[in-house]
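Re: the request from the purification team.
They wanted to know what the chain is likely to look like in 3D before they choose a buffer screen. I agreed to run a prediction and write the result into the notebook, where they can find it.
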Amino acid sequence: MFRPLQLFIGLRYTRAKRRNHFISFITLISMLGIALGVTALITVISVMNGFEKELRERILGMTSHASIQGQGQNLQGWQAVAAAAGQHPDVVGYAPYIQAEGMLSYNQQVNGSLVRGILPAEEPKVSEVGDKMIFGELENLIPGEFGIILGKDLARMLNAFQGDKVTLIIPQANVTPAGILPRMRRFTVVGVFEAGMYEYDSTLALIHIHDAQRLFRMPEQITGVRLKLQDMFEASQVTRDLIEMIPGQYFISDWTRQHANFFRAVKIEKITMFVILLLIVAVAAFNLVSTLVMAVVDKEADIAILRTFGATPAMIMGVFVVQGTIIGVIGTLMGTVGGVLLASNIDTIIPAIEHIIGTKILSAEVYYISELPSDMKWSDVIAISSIALLLSLFATLYPAWRGSRVQPAEALRYE
């Protein structure tokens, strides 16, 4: 079978071991270095994707994909607004809410709180709080009975349990003969939830929306309507569509604006880790330079003989480009396979390591995400593999050029 001269000689140099075992050894080290860098990069990026996905799901499990508010933070006639928003094909659920700040007190313990009034029957359409209940149910919030559902850490800080009476103090005043007094109301703890995010578990308290209207003196008003979208990544486009669809003066926002700084920080951290780990691949790829330079020095006599037989400098350069490219391709393939296998099975590998070392890497007592998540994306795998191949190819250029500059007379002088 005919093969081009450069490919044939390049393959021959790659697997030749008889003349110089040291060059073969550093060639193997170059392959393993590229493989290790690619494996580490694919695995770490997949884990960071998993953390980002987990955080996004936990945050959006308690907040809405989008929300509609009226002028002055008050909305009247929410049913008409919700019905108009529901006509958008990407809106799959909506629910009204009232949100305000307050202070909870129980047994000489006081803690600030974010109070949210909800309709228990409608809330599951826009959030997952009903699935995160430790005890109690959303249906325990009955209008007029002033029940309250606390976040896990908020209940712990107050030392309040199911059936206890907690006092909710709001920043509104009552004018009495004794003077101006803050408004307060006693609520009965009817449930506790655990969202898995300290921001919500330590501050959020849920009450019935009718109780919230009475407490905050909003008889015919609410704060707004929360929306759930079919695809949360289309939130910005849906928001723009709703602005045109719904007549009147409303403030429409989405999760990309409400949590923009948080997800921007996660993205920057992901990019930073990508660049840092890419340096491992770069070091391994440029280690290929020294490998090929040594190969050129070792093969100077062979190069001189090829030149005397009529090989051009371009052909000699092609030989070493082929050799370096083969090393890069093999290393990248090994790293890609290793990275894909490691990222795909990290949920079983980490527990095995924890069992061997006898300790928990992500303790549930310290971290809210106690398992190491992984979300491998083939687009990331392809991008990392392509970059590794390009770096390997770039690393072959100087040694190949140096090999093409070997002068036959000089190389054969002492042979």
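For the purification team: The mean pLDDT is 80.
Please add any questions underneath this entry.
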